[in-house]
What does this fold into?
Amino acid sequence: MKRIALALSAVALVAISAGTALAAPTGAPNARWVTATCDGYSGTFKMVVNGNGAFPAAHDVSSTRVFVPVWFGPTTVKADGKPDQIFPAGVKGSAAPKGHTLITCSWTGVPEEFEGVWYTASGTVGGFFA
It folds into this structure.
């Protein structure tokens, strides 16, 4: 369950590369889809996370923006027929927005199946758009 949470957390929980995204990696084998609403922005962002680690990149699929996370709030993982699991917050200590506005987003991962059980993760993330 913990590795699922880490994979789903990577969904928003994602260290993103700065600069312009040439293309969102939507077809990659380990791509994870996330929807997010962010302070100061109207509407919902559809993002794809493709990477390993606790802070992977989140590419806004309707633009060339990349969301760079610098902290994550607690992550909740819901699984069919199982009690909710809550994983603690995390901070990427070396990231700084350097000229970008730091914002807070609420995110939800697209449901995923693992070993016959469907999971959904959600939480909050702080970071900036590059």
In short: The beta strands are 32-38, 45-49, 58-60, 66-79, 85-87, 90-91, 103-109, 112-114, 117-129. The two ends are 32 Å apart (CA to CA). The first helix runs from residue 2 to 9.
